[in-house]
Amino acid sequence: MYRSVWKNYHKSVCSVELYSKQGIRFHRATGFRYRGYIISDLSGEDLKRAEKILIQFFSEKVSGPVALFELKSRDLNKMIAGEIPNEYSGLKFIAMPKGDTYSVPPLISGSIPHPATGSPVAIICFSRRMDRPCLKTGIVSSRIMEGGNAYVHIEASFEPGNAGSPVIDGSTGNLVGVVSDCLSAQLREYKVLRRIIDENIRTLDALNGNSVCEGIDIFQALKANHYLIRNLTRDIHLCSHRNFGFALPFARIAECFNDIECCRQIRLQEDNHSPE
After folding, report:
1. What's the structural domain count of the chain?
2. By the number of CB atoms within 10 A of the CB, which of 106, 169, 216, 275 ranks highest?
3. How many other C-beta atoms lie within 10 A of the C-beta of residue 258?
4. What is the pLDDT of residues 31-57, one digit of tens each?
5. Measured between alpha carbons, how far is residue 1 from residues 11, 108, 121 in Å?
6. Are residues 186 and 154 in contact, defined by beta-carbon separation less than 8 angstroms?
7. 146 and 41 share one domain
8. Same domain, yes or no, for 260 and 157?
9. Which domain holds residue 205?
């Protein structure tokens, strides 16, 4: 069953890479095509920092991407039709970029609001270390409520870069959820530590030149150490693995999609009736 899931849907899944002004890739997430949109889990903070976004779809039969879209951050923000926010990021509905999308089939949605506990699931995803999509398998182990949303607890291998991956029912081949990092304890701890380090760097930056000993600016040296600590904590976080993860059920995604399409139809009607 997993072989057919991979064969049918790996071409629908994409890598979403964010690059800084210096051309350095600082974040990667997974996304997928659903009807006329790309759904991915991206934070507003990362999108503000990004100068360029690269979206790539692959096929196992082709060495390079079958579809590639390079967008400026400001252009991608205009293409976001809606989102399901959470504490750290949010599932974004990004209008499918214009271009050759014939080779990118949309995923098929399921009719089950919540996959049953014990159901086998497949996750097609990218990671920080792999430039090609891969297939992971697991089971639905429980369901929880957080921030007004229901989440599915999945027993499977997860790592940074998997957020935004589609969760597919192993028996029916239907889309039943999307992986989200918002409930990850590792992410929460990393975000808290990152805020503390950034605050310390800002404090030390304001004290530059106030304490010099034998030609060495003590606060400048401390700031350099904090930058090193920040990079180390980021590397540790990006190399982290865990044996469970959380996904937002498709029912919530379908609800948001219907709201987006309803608003789009209203705008089209207003545009058609507006005087020239």
Report:
1. 2
2. 169
3. 10
4. 999 988 999 999 888 899 899 999 999
5. 17, 16, 10
6. no
7. yes
8. yes
9. 185-238
